[in-house]
Amino acid sequence: MNVIRWFSAAAMAAFLLAPLAAQTRPPTTVHPAPAVRSPWFYLPSPPELVAGAGSMNARWSHDGRYALVLRVKTTMVSIEDIKMEPSIVLWNGDRKAATVLWRVESNDYQISEVTWMPGASVAYAVVAVNGPEGWRSTIWRIDARRATVAQVAGTGPSDGISISPRLPVAVIHGHDEQGSYIRTLDASGQMGAAVRLAEGAMFPLFWSSDGATFRLGATSVEGEFTTWSFDTSKGEATPIAAEPLKMPEERPEPRWPFRVEYIETNLAGASRTGTLVLPTSENHGEKGRSLWLVQGEGASAERIPVAADAAEWSISPRGDAILYTCREGCFVVPLIRISQAEAERAREKARQAILLNNGKQVALALMMHAMENDEVLPPAGTDLRTVLGPYVKSPEIFNGLTGPGDGFVYTFGGGPMSGVEDPANTEMGYIPAPGGRAVVFVDGHVVFEPSGAPRP
């Protein structure tokens, strides 16, 4: 794949100019900084749609191969009549494809949570269903590899589920007329025998650090509180001595050679990055947060825009994609890894593209000015920013890569264009840059001349 050809000038312009824009709006870092400098550089691909508007709770599987998204599409028939259409959407990262696993046009289903099981391509969802006897809790098994959804048989109307953070096992806890109970649930959907704890209420607490045992508390009808340890490998619950409530430490997130940052964006208009405008949809003037891929530290950090507005996001456990939700839906942005040498060549091409584009706009403005002034170009020493202001959308086109200090240099002495014998080879001005300059000619074309290159 030709990375330089793929990476468009517009995207690279954002890549180069983003640090300048970000200096005026300090970003909020929400991902750990990279631990070491990497020999690789990461580029975001165009976003790929996973699910439409109303998406929420997007979650990667533990191996990063899949992602699940909950979506609730709403249609207002009237103020009293709002139709709901909940659905569960699966993203297959290997196939780069989204599949609607389940969808129903009904207000009688509410999906409260979806959790992946470690070491398996399986997730479990808690779904409240409104039936003849009222609302009841159900547990559904989602098999990503087979792309299927099925209700777990034998679960009770009040059951909840807690999935181990380390092992492919879960516990189902609930109560019935006989009291509280707990049982195991494996990745295949098989449940263990119910273990009775007490006639009163039960309170799920937390998993052990190894993910093999589950702590919970139970209160008898007499009000006596007991702490229990449930061994999922044996399916046995044992009362233990009361101990202070201490949550196990979470494993640290992977440290990638990049991080993701939010920058607050005024969605009333557009989010600007230098001369690049990030598109946004109709948003009623609300505040949003644009999402950026950041590599490097301090003033040398390079920021590339990922999304103009993002509500929540997460990096794939494989480090090869970013998943985010926004007003328009849920999207995946695949990340392309290239070498630092390839990245530098791409930077150089992009710098040249920016300079050539700015040079063409300056040339067009000069010609428009000349056409309205008897085809006479401005004399030497003219303040072009003022004179050409009505003909340009932004005065930034006169700037170089670092600002006005190294911007467009007008070298033509002025006079009628008809007096120029060879417009295609007569220099009108140039924009300097490291390694060369973008030269503007009287006929309007622009070329990049490397330093030391012979003039024709």
Strand proportion: 35-45%
CA-to-CA gap between the ends? 34 Å
Query: Count the strands?
Result: 33
**Biggest sheet character:** 5 strands, antiparallel
Describe this protein's structure.
The chain has 456 residues and is mostly beta strands. The protein contains four helices and 33 strands. Strand 10 (134-143) and strand 11 form a beta hairpin. The longest helix is centred in the C-terminal third of the chain and has 32 residues, at 340-371.
Summarize this structure briefly:
12% of the residues lie in helices and 44% in strands. The protein has helices at residues 3-6, 9-22, 340-371, 384-387; strands at 28-29, 40-44, 48-51, 55-60, 66-76, 82-92, 97-103, 109-116, 122-131, 134-143, 148-151, 160-163, 169-176, 179-186, 195-198, 202-207, 213-219, 225-231, 236-240, 259-266, 271-273, 276-278, 287-295, 302-307, 312-315, 321-326, 329-339, 376-377, 409-410, 415-416, 427-433, 436-441, 446-450.
